[in-house]
Write a structure and sequence with these properties.
By secondary structure, the chain is an alpha+beta fold. It is built from 11 helices and 12 strands. It is elongated and about 95 Å long. The chain starts with a helix and ends with a helix.
């Protein structure tokens, strides 16, 4: 079955005014989808891309995050010398007990935000893959010093090497800037764990991070720790733990993206339908000629539907280009699990582009169906009488 594709494709470029209006309406709907999906993807990557499967985070059984977990010093001592913990060349366990808490801190642009503060120790940095000090040095144990994640630089006053930050009623000197390569740790302040415990007057740690001697046994290790009445501890891989932190908000952001896209897409569908209906009304002679020279109604329908799809895909490409301008822009939002600010960057990835083009395609098919149907049902004789 022959389809008048050449005619319909040429019409897209000949009727420039109608093409620009339709493409622009679709582009805005697609751009909104790209922006919000890129926001969700950036948040996911910042958390889900954090950590290593070679490390485990040990939390109190039932705890959903580090902030609501608790480990006593006795539990920490027992866990650190367990056989599942890897040893270094000197036979020392690769483990670090830590404290995690959120503090309300003034932002550079006004207002306050909850910043995650991690009390850690000498092994805290070495245990985590991909982390390095971009500037300065690590804090000295026992001193009121901190290391700041580089995503916080500029967002919180005083976060420069040698600067001072007020935290929990004390003044802390900034010893260094941590580069976590976009991981969740980029949004944290690190201080000495023992100093932190004294400042917040807590007797217990929050969690412990350990390097696993046999990462493939993590499930069995978790079962053993959970069953030990002395411990009541759960073990999660570092990567799994942070991936779970992204769950709820990521789902909400994606739902919001499609909700906004549906609203704007509906408007784009009506706009495309009206524009194409007007185009059909002005082209009755041309349509009648196509039918008279042997093109079937079905072929005319598919030809006009193809025209609508091409317009939609042009709008989709333009929308992706507009949305791409946000790629890499830094932003931040509240992590609903820890109720702390998480900094990240917009990420326009391949799956975001595919979803955007799918939206454009749906707009083209739905918006072009009625005009294509009307064109295919036009009698050749009625069309030719317009001459």
């Amino acid at each position: 079955m022959a389809i008048p594709l050449t005619y319909n494709l040429r019409s897209v470029f000949v009727r420039k005014g109608a093409t620009v209006l339709t493409v622009t309406a679709i582009a805005f709907a697609v751009a909104v989808l790209v922006l919000v999906l890129a926001l969700a993807r950036g948040f996911e990557e910042a958390l889900a891309g954090t950590g290593s499967d070679a490390n485990a985070i040990l939390l109190r059984s039932g705890a959903t995050s580090e902030g609501v977990s608790s480990l006593t010093r006795d539990q920490a001592r027992i866990l650190a010398v367990d056989e599942f913990v890897m040893r270094d060349q000197d036979g020392e366990p690769l483990a670090q007990a830590e404290v995690y808490a959120a503090f309300s801190i003034e932002r550079s642009d006004g207002g306050r935000t909850n910043i995650p503060v991690r009390g850690t120790g000498p092994r805290g940095l070495a245990l985590r893959e991909g982390l390095r000090l971009a500037e300065g040095r690590m804090f000295v144990p026992g001193r009121f010093e901190l290391v700041a994640g580089q995503a916080l630089v500029g967002r919180v006053p005083g976060l420069v090497v040698g600067g001072d930050v007020e935290l929990s009623g004390y003044t802390w000197r900034v010893a260094g800037i941590l580069d976590a390569q976009g991981q969740a740790y980029d949004s944290e302040l690190w201080i000495d764990v023992e100093v932190f415990l004294r400042v917040i007057d807590r007797p217990a740690f929050s969690t412990m991070i350990v390097r696993l001697a046999e990462p493939q046994r993590l499930a069995a290790i978790d079962a053993e720790l959970s069953a030990d009445p002395r411990l009541t501890v759960q073990a999660k891989s570092e990567r799994q733990y942070f991936a779970e932190q992204a769950g709820a908000l990521s789902i909400v952001l994606k739902a919001l993206a499609w909700f906004l896209a549906a609203i704007m897409g509906t408007g784009a569908v009506f706009g495309a339908t009206n524009t194409l209906l007007a185009s059909v009304a002005m082209r009755t002679h041309e349509i009648g000629t196509l039918l008279a020279i042997g093109f079937s109604p079905r072929a005319v329908f598919l030809g006009f539907l193809s025209e609508a799809v091409v317009l939609a895909l042009l709008g989709g490409v333009l929308g992706v280009v507009l949305g791409w301008q946000c790629n890499g822009l830094a932003t931040g939002t509240t992590n609903w699990t820890t109720f702390t600010e998480q900094s990240f960057a917009f990420r326009v990835t391949g799956d975001v582009v595919v979803q955007a083009l799918v939206l454009a395609l749906l707009i083209g098919v739905v918006g072009g169906a009625l005009p294509a149907r009307r064109a295919s049902r036009l009698p050749p004789s009625a069309a030719l009488r317009t001459l």
